[in-house]
Design goal:
By secondary structure, this protein is of the alpha+beta class. It has a single domain, classed as Heat Shock Protein 90 (2-Layer Sandwich), CATH 3.30.565. Helices cover 31% and strands 24% of the residues. It has 3 helices and 5 strands. The chain has a 5-stranded antiparallel β-sheet with strand order 1-2-3-5-4, with helices on one face. The radius of gyration is 17 Å and the shape is globular.
């Protein structure tokens, strides 16, 4: 029987456009990442990335609209964790996001989420979601373990 950790696994959930959904989504994804064996630092980075993405979907994408949902899909394989988060909003242009490191933005309390997701995940991309909205895809690869007794 194959180890459960090595079996591909996909999970899909739909969340309400409310901030309470952020915690639930983060817990779900971090549990999947822990099952795959990511260390505490990576679990923290993945959690922050999911939290930032969910807040963007709820607040900026769906604008708290109760009729709009946030869609989460998590795929776990032996090599990686892939996360898709989609909203039903009016769309998003990542090039229109102000540089959070620019002098005029340094003291702002928001605007760093995309930068954090890009820094903490191995892959980050955005797509237009059909029929409406934005979908973010984030990938975190499992670190390769050094073989015991191998050459340095």
């Amino acid at each position: 029987m194959a180890d459960q950790q090595t079996q591909p696994h996909t999970l899909e959930q739909v969340f309400e456009s409310e901030l309470e959904s952020v915690d639930s989504a983060e817990e779900t994804v971090v549990a999947e990442a822990a099952h795959l064996g990511f260390d505490e630092d990576d679990l923290h980075r993945i959690g922050i990335s999911v939290r930032e993405c969910m807040v963007n979907a709820v607040v900026h994408g769906n604008r708290y609209n109760a009729r709009k949902k946030v869609h989460l899909k998590v795929e776990r394989t032996p090599e990686q964790l892939t996360i898709w988060i989609g909203d039903e909003g009016d769309g998003f242009d990542p090039n229109a996001v102000p540089d959070p490191l620019a002098g005029e933005n340094i003291m702002r309390h928001s605007g760093r989420g995309v930068m954090l997701m890009q820094a903490f995940m191995d892959e980050f991309s955005t797509y237009t979601r059909q029929p409406q909205g934005t979908e973010v895809k984030m990938v975190k690869y499992k670190p390769k373990r050094a073989t015991e007794g191998g050459n340095s």
